[in-house]
């Protein structure tokens, strides 16, 4: 609908050093270990600063936020195992791309992967790897035929 949305994702850069105070902690859904009130206050202050900046670009958004969730470099570190909580996943080496290559098709029958680390980093990487994974499932030639046909309509 033109006037509202059910969900919005807002991302902003945060330096790992800002979370150094809590770097010895580890917290996931599977292994819950809350980082304490100071950490929650830190995240709330960061979120409010980001929401204030968003309000400048989208007047009225602040009063229409029902709830929000925050994550920090520690969240990324704990869930995806990157040493410094990098949101872009594993580091690729352009000089030796096969060393960090991750295939969409795995050795486990009917288990396929998709996401930012397969082909390239970030949002575009997610999109490209989704196409790659679909190609494994549907056949690359068949998928490309469907894409070309859809663009002709």
Describe this structure in words.
The protein has 4 helices and no strands. The chain is globular. The chain is 39% helix and 0% strand. The protein has helices at 37-57, 73-80, 122-138, 140-152. By secondary structure, it is mainly α. Helix 3 packs across helix 4 (140-152). The mean pLDDT is 86.
Can you give me a brief rundown of this structure?
The protein has 153 residues and is mainly α.
Describe the SSE topology.
Layout: H1 37-57, H2 73-80, H3 122-138, H4 140-152
Helix pairs in contact: 3-4
Order of helices and strands: HHHH
Tell me the strand percentage band. Answer: under 5%
| Strand segment tally | 0
Low-confidence stretches: none
- Taking all Cα atoms into account, the compactness measure Rg is 20 Å
State the distance separating the first and last CA atoms: 24 Å
The mean pLDDT is 86
The largest sheet, given as strand count, sense and whether it forms a barrel, is: none
Structural class: mainly alpha
State the assembly state of the protein chains. Answer: single chain
Number of H- or I-type helical stretches: 4
């Amino acid at each position: 609908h033109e006037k509202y949305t059910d969900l919005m994702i807002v991302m902003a850069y945060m330096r790992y050093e800002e979370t150094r105070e809590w770097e010895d902690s580890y917290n996931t859904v599977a292994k819950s270990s809350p980082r304490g009130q100071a950490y929650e206050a830190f995240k709330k202050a960061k979120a409010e600063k980001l929401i204030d900046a968003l309000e400048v670009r989208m007047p009225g958004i602040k009063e229409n936020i029902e709830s929000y969730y925050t994550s920090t470099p520690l969240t990324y570190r704990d869930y995806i195992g990157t040493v410094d909580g990098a949101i872009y996943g594993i580091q690729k080496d352009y000089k030796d791309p096969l060393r960090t290559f991750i295939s969409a098709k795995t050795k486990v029958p009917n288990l396929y992967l998709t996401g930012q680390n397969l082909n390239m980093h970030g949002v575009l990487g997610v999109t490209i790897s989704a196409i790659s994974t679909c190609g494994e499932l549907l056949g690359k030639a068949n998928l490309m035929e469907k894409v070309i046909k859809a663009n002709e309509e």
